[in-house]
Write a structure and sequence with these properties.
CATH class of the largest domain: Alpha Beta
Number of strands: 8
Mean pLDDT: 93
Largest sheet: 8 strands, parallel, barrel
Structural class: alpha/beta
Low-confidence stretches: 1-5
CATH architecture of the largest domain: Alpha-Beta Barrel
Strand order of the largest sheet: 1-2-3-4-5-6-7-8
Shape: globular
Oligomer: single chain
Order of helices and strands: EHEHHEHEHHEHEHHEHEHHHHHHH
């Protein structure tokens, strides 16, 4: 395997990141995750380049300064449009802008972007080259699959990395599954194609100058630490970080980044209250935030009561921070009763 990639520099600490997830990693989710971990890199949902150019930019791109380090994921396959979207996004202050070369949905395929771009590495190189030229401070990266459909990953993945890195990209997040563009739904594409972690590790050996981040099926900090110990530059966790954020993020600063830890989930919930108040004062609704908080106490006594109060009351007219406080009290009551043996 020949390695002809140019040496590129990367600037962000990507030892741990939360994957971009449609309908999940919006600005409220990211604010919560930032309270859980100061250093984990956070990604937006995928936004198409055309939406950035023609849509409501504040709604699509706006974020709280507390979210840094934060990365925008773009979808598209037209170099000029992606370059314009990068110029717009850089004005918002993103630390990274990532090109989606992994989403397998029919809607994305019809626009000739996402995972289908694995079949067009030269086009991807043109896209990222235009994005790099347009960027004013944000690092340009790529998130990809190991292949699509009948492609042989051990043949096409190194060729893809070589071609795209030659255009100037130094960091790749690799979802260690193929994407099947026909016959599997996006949900099935997250579970059914087998994981090939050894191939991702091989790519780091073959391309030592590149930053290689592994993604797909990773559910714990134990797994993340194991991948880092094997020489990968970073680990990207998706669904587990959303459904059970405390187990993944609460200890991340201490275990992955060597920083201080010791925060509690209850303290994070308390720190969310001023953010919730500001959101409501601006005309927002409580459930736009609390839907991301349902998994905060997964696996703990009283977690069902926490979820029930939030689910039943957050959507009601006039619902405010007191709903979150009541949910916390309901959970803690169960825990206190268990502690005294009742």
């Amino acid at each position: 395997m020949q390695n002809k990639s140019i040496i590129t520099k990367t600037y962000l600490d990507r030892r741990l990141s939360v994957a971009p997830m449609m309908d999940w990693t919006d600005r409220h989710c990211r604010y919560l995750h930032r309270l859980l971990s100061r250093h984990t890199l956070l990604y937006t949902e995928m936004v198409t380049a055309q939406a950035v150019i023609h849509g409501d930019r504040e709604r699509l791109l706006g974020f709280d300064a507390a979210e840094h380090p934060v990365a925008l994921q773009l979808g598209g396959s037209e170099p000029a449009a992606l370059a314009e979207a990068v110029r717009i996004a850089c004005d918002f202050g993103y630390d990274e802008i990532n090109l989606n070369v992994g989403c397998p949905s029919d809607r994305v395929q019809s626009g000739t972007f996402g995972a289908v771009l694995m079949e067009h590495p030269a086009l991807v190189a043109d896209c990222v080259g235009a994005m790099i030229a347009a960027s004013a401070g944000a690092e340009i990266t790529v998130k990809c699959r190991i292949g699509v459909d009948d492609q042989e990953p051990r043949e096409i993945l190194p060729a893809f990395l070589e071609t795209v890195s030659a255009a100037g990209v130094g960091s790749f997040a690799i979802h260690a599954r193929k994407a099947w563009l026909q016959g599997l739904s996006p949900k099935q594409n997250r579970d059914i194609p087998p994981l090939d972690y050894p191939l991702v590790l091989e790519m780091k050996t073959a391309f030592p100058a590149l930053e290689i981040v592994v993604n797909g099926g990773i559910a714990s900090l134990d797994q993340a630490e194991a991948f880092l110990a094997q020489g990968l530059d970073g680990v990207m966790i998706g669904r587990a970080a959303y459904h059970d954020p405390c187990s993944v993020l609460l200890e991340a600063d201490a275990r992955i980044f060597g920083g201080p830890g010791g925060r509690t989930a209850e303290a994070v919930v308390s720190d969310m209250l001023p953010y919730i108040e500001a959101h409501l004062a601006g005309g927002g609704r409580l459930n736009q935030i609390t839907r991301h908080m349902l998994g905060m106490f997964t696996g703990l006594a009283g977690a069902r009561h926490w979820r029930r109060v939030l689910s039943e009351r957050s959507h009601q007219a006039g619902a405010g921070p007191e709903v979150v406080e009541d949910a916390l009290y309901a959970m803690q009551t169960v825990q206190n009763l268990q502690a005294i043996g009742k």
